[in-house]
Amino acid sequence: MTELATGTWNLDMSHSDIAFVVRHAGISKVRGKFTAAEGTLTVGETANDSSVEVTINADSFNSGDEGRDGHVKSADFFDVETYPTLKFVSTGVSGNNEEFELTGDLTIRDQTHPVTLKVESEGVAVDPFGNTRAAFSGKTTISRKQWGLTWNAALEAGGVLVSDKVVIEIDAAFVKSN
Fold first, then answer.
1. Is 2 among the domain residues?
2. Residue 73 Rama label (left phi>0; alpha psi -120 to 50; beta)
């Protein structure tokens, strides 16, 4: 297997997923993802010299239901007209080359809070076109209320329509810059 070389790596969204899972009506799970993002992985000599920065187009939100997507893009949730992007900027890495924790600042609706993703390296390889690729999978759970995403509706039987807990799941592919 090829090693993760120092330098700049660019996010390849055509081979990446930035997804979420949230409980609906307390009984089912709704999944969705963002389909447009840009980002870089800068690999330094050590993990502490390395960083990740990703900017997500909030309007690219897609859960497979146009009505729900429109509601989530509205002022009740992401307010994409006012806040067109979400952003993650890493602040630290701990662990080993295979499994590690990536800590960073997540900005949603101009509110920034720290998050920690548990990340696994999926490997590094050279594709048939001569591009060196690296892939990682990561996961974290956040409270949407922390970012001011508080819209909800009470259920007749008790509880609420949308859970506060949101699981974020990321499968990211990066291509080494020449």
1. no
2. alpha
Segments forming the whole domain that contains residue 139? 7-176
C-alpha torsion 120→18→89→70, nearest 10: -160
Q: What is the CATH number of the domain that holds 167?
A: 2.40.128.110
In a 10 Å sphere around its CB, with 0-12 CB exposed, 13-18 middle and 19+ buried, how is residue 139 labelled? middle
Contact yes or no for 60/36 (Cβ under 8 A): yes
Q: For 11-65, write each residue's pLDDT tens digit.
A: 999 999 999 988 776 666 889 999 999 999 999 888 788 899 999 999 999 999 8
The verdict on pTM exceeding 0.85 is yes
Say if residues 104 and 114 touch (Cβ distance below 8 Å). Answer: yes
